[in-house]
Design goal:
single chain; 263 residues; 6-stranded antiparallel β-sheet; 8 strands
Amino acid sequence: MASETDATVNVIERVADILDSLSGGEPEQGITELSSRLNLGKSTVHRLVSALVKRGYMQQNPINSRYSLGPAAIRLGLVSTLRALDIRSLAMPLLEQLRDQTGETTTLSIRHENQRVYIAQVESHQEIRQTVELGRIYPLYLGATGKVILAFLPESECEQVLEMAGKDERVNLQNLRADLAEIAQKGYATSRGERSPDAASVAAPIYDQRQQVIGAMSVAGPVSRITPVRQAEFVPFLSEAATNLSRQLGASWQNKTNSEEHL
């Protein structure tokens, strides 16, 4: 009985080591790298990683086959942060008001490493509407929400993400750099059918007390209803909501947007 208990504890310790390695070291690692870092056999690491992927605590990058923390692990990691800042509670009234002003679904995403995760949404009342999966992770280089975070990151951190983007066959790096320069100038981002072919959105950055971008607020809906003109009409409402949330988080400035410039 004791040996069985010891074996269970041993497995738990190995799982914790894998998760610690991904959260404290490189955000993406392969089986060979994890095996070397943790001094474990590749077959053992592969078995544990497969189980963690199945439960959502890890995920595999389809481009380079490396592994990173998954939605379940991200949700656990966000618990203490969200409690400390109470960001979701602060955001919900603003998201509801923004939904009522635009008639479309509104969302809040938080940056995690070189990715982002949805933590809140208020759905549109319309029969055909855009919805997101809370806790799901997306890259920063696709879609308005990700790119508006990326555009306002420090240059060194932005370049790390661009290096990843350059390995994604969906991305034209030259076009992406041009998009980011335009977003930085306007103060918001728009997209139409970029990450999801049937969706259009407009997004603005969220800042904390250090004046650093930590996430983004967005308005999203079907491309058939959200025209470029409507996207531009959403910008003042979105900018006000994002500014209000940033101020509540300690930021001492307001979002500067040029609503006359839009795609």
